[in-house]
Design goal:
With about 675 residues, this protein is mainly alpha-helical. The protein has 28 helices and 8 strands. About 60% of the residues lie in helices and about 5% in strands. The strands form 3 sheets. Strands 5-4-3-6 form a 4-stranded mixed sheet. A two-stranded antiparallel sheet has the order 1-8. Strands 2-7 form a two-stranded antiparallel ribbon. Strand 4 and strand 5 form a beta hairpin. The N and C termini lie far apart (about 115 Å).
């Protein structure tokens, strides 16, 4: 079964998919490493709300306490050494074999040597290094493991090293033995048993308790403004350990993730509904939706990265970038709504959520308000200053209310707010980049385009001075009308200045540029003359593209005549050829027709201004009738059927046009001349 979807349905599914992807990415960005969101130090005031135990948890001993108790438990611990009882026989046999060749060492001497070797090896010989290590560890005993796995404790002072063993043998040895090298037969028979030692040590440490009590659910831990003592630090650290243990469990993690999913999808759905219901012009352009969603994702990603991978405060993140950039390209309400949704999402990542929400919503309002009528790039720097002041004032006020003592305010936050405000200056670069990537136009760019001293405008005024003056008049009319019906007046003003720029190519064919001479079009047949006039639209688009004008301005050029006819030539052709049916396509502009309020206003202003120049008299009645007829004819011809403009809007526009044209062509006072007075005869 084939499913046929309309373009609107396809667009809706695309946008829903984009919002869903954003929600999934946000859930993945939630920090998981640090579940305990409070920062605390001994001797510093607790800057958060009252904390009580939400569950029973043990109070863990600190490292110093554990280290001290370990020392106490292990103070009588004896390391284990294996004793090789067979080694004495091997060494003694080797020595006996060597001494038998020496005739001076016989009888009594041999008996002495055998006895001494057995005594020494039974006590045990340990390496000098091991012996010194035991002394440095303040060990006085060792445990010797016999071949039958029986152990017995030996005092360290009784254990010999190769050197002390040699000294003990030679101390009372017969004279004949003192000159003989006994050292090579004295080998260590005590070797350290690391495995048995570790096992024995761990068995002892099993008796070490890592906790020093329990805290019951509901018990008070610490309140705002209290100094974190060593005891409260220990309790808070225990709470952190237990919280992270609970978060790491599969059941707890799944519950937390479920909550994050519900919360994120809920907030993003609210933003989706706002765009769908109240900003259809944004909703219908996929690139605009992607742009806004990427901005939201960028701010959330920066926050998540700062919290998870740096030790810096999350307040250095320039959160106000979001409302600033959206305000520059769209409108204040969308900017503030997107900012609030983003702040609410991020509040679940930070520690003091209430303080964070209060500060960020205040900053967002300051950012949007300071950019109400943005006309200069310097306003971005001013906005950064206003945001910094808003941060500082609200933070200090919040702390004074919470702490009740100015000395408890953490002034390091002022540095974070300053860095965040400095980062806002990168908005200059981001605005330029976003304009190019997403085919957007900012208020700053529009202001720059309205500069009549630019190279393109100067060429326009020089090549087609009459058309240039016409464009200025249309711009003034359209701007006032746009303000009246809450359209984008700056966009209309800019589009009006460039709408007839195509007449630069052949200015001599247009009457406003002719200085009373013969009209070249009067010598051309009506069809060709109509095409020459119509071509100024395509010529304007070509010039605009070569001059790299934004697509939004090019739309004004292509649609300012819509699909209307060049009526002068059309009617003249019919009158000259009453028996011949005209080819309407030759006399009709290619369009498109206006599809927003701004292009609709320009079409009305262009037609009314041009027609006003042909009036024979300028009275209230003639001007009103002209405005009514021109706009009503455009409506009747269906030129505004795609534009979201209401009848009320049209009536307001008409009223503005009538008033402005009356002011332009008002009656002027005739200045008197000085009469010549004849002097009297003397």
């Amino acid at each position: 079964m084939k499913i046929n979807l309309s373009e609107t349905q396809i667009q809706n599914f695309k946008i829903i998919g984009l919002f869903t992807c954003l929600s999934i990415l946000i859930v993945l960005l939630y920090p998981t490493e640090d579940s305990f969101k409070y920062q605390f130090e001994i001797g510093k005031p607790w800057s958060y709300e009252l904390i009580t135990a939400s569950f029973d948890f043990p109070i863990y001993k600190n490292e110093q306490q554990l280290a001290k108790e370990k020392v106490e438990i292990l103070k009588d611990f004896t390391p284990y050494y294996k004793i090789d009882t067979a080694l004495v026989s091997k060494q003694l046999q080797k020595l006996t074999d060597d001494l038998q060749q020496n005739k001076d060492i016989q009888g009594h001497t041999m008996t002495y040597i055998r006895k001494k070797f057995k005594d020494i090896y039974s006590v045990g010989i340990i390496s000098a290094t091991e012996y010194n290590n035991l002394l440095s560890d303040k060990r006085t005993k060792i445990s010797c493991i016999l071949p039958n796995r029986l152990t017995h404790i030996r005092q360290l002072e009784t254990v010999l090293t190769p050197r002390t063993a040699y000294e003990q043998i030679t101390a009372n040895a017969p004279v004949t033995l003192k000159d003989y090298n006994i050292n090579k037969y004295l080998t260590e028979n005590l070797t350290f048993d690391s495995l048995t030692t570790v096992i024995s040590k761990n068995e002892l440490l099993k008796n070490l308790s890592i906790t020093s009590g329990m805290l019951q659910s509901g018990e008070r831990i610490i309140d705002r403004g209290e100094i974190v003592s060593s005891n409260s630090f220990q309790v808070l650290n225990s709470l952190k350990i237990e919280t992270e243990k609970r978060k790491s469990s599969i059941q707890q993690s799944s519950v937390v993730i479920l909550g994050e999913i519900i919360m994120t999808f809920g907030l993003i759905s609210l933003f989706f509904l706002y765009i769908y219901l109240f900003r259809p012009r944004i909703f219908e352009v996929t690139s605009h939706v992607i742009f806004i969603l990427l901005l939201i994702l960028m701010i959330i990603s920066l926050t998540s990265f700062t919290i998870s991978f740096t030790s810096s405060s999350y307040y250095i993140v320039p959160f106000a970038l979001l409302p600033i950039i959206i305000r520059v390209f769209f409108d204040s309400r969308t900017a503030l709504f997107a900012h609030i949704i983003t702040v609410l999402i991020i509040s679940f990542m930070v520690d003091n959520a209430f303080q964070f929400i209060l500060l960020q919503i205040t900053v967002g309002m300051a950012a949007v308000s300071s950019l109400k009528d943005m006309s200069q790039r310097s306003q971005l720097a001013q906005t950064a200053l206003y945001i910094f002041l808003s941060y500082v004032l609200m933070y200090v006020a919040f702390e004074l209310i919470s702490e009740g003592d100015i000395n408890r305010i953490d002034w390091h936050y002022i540095i974070f707010f300053g860095l965040s405000s400095v980062f806002l200056l990168f908005a200059y670069v981001l605005i330029y980049i976003f304009e190019k990537i997403f085919n957007l136009v900012s208020s700053v760019t529009l202001v720059e385009l309205t500069n009549i001293n630019s190279d393109l405008m100067m060429q326009f005024s020089e090549r087609a001075p009459g058309t240039f003056q016409h464009s200025l008049q249309v711009s003034n009319l359209a701007t006032e009308a746009a303000k009246k019906i809450n359209a984008n007046s700056l966009l209309v003003r800019t589009g009006a200045l460039y709408h007839d720029i195509g007449k630069m190519k052949h200015p001599e064919y247009f009457i406003e540029n002719q200085l009373g001479g013969k009209n070249p079009l009067s010598e051309i047949d009506y069809e060709d003359a109509s095409q020459i006039v119509i071509n100024h639209v395509n010529d304007g688009i070509e010039i605009a593209k070569k001059s790299h004008l934004p697509e939004q301005i090019i739309k004004f050029i292509s649609s300012h005549h819509g699909t209307s006819k060049t009526k002068y030539f059309y009617y003249s052709y019919i009158n000259a050829n009453p028996d011949k049916k005209p080819n309407d396509e030759i006399f009709t502009y290619p369009g498109p027709i206006p599809n927003n309020k701004e292009t609709a206003i320009l079409m009305m202003a262009d037609a009314v201004e041009a027609r006003s120049r042909s009036l024979t008299e300028y009275t209230d009645e003639s001007i009103s009738e002209m405005v009514e007829n021109m706009i009503d004819n455009q409506i009747a011809e269906g030129e505004f059927k795609d534009a979201p403009i209401t009848f009320r809007d049209v009536e307001l526009v008409k009223a503005v046009f009538k008033e402005k044209i009356k002011n332009i062509y008002h009656n002027r006072i005739k200045y008197p001349e000085i009469t010549k007075i004849t002097p009297p005869n003397p």
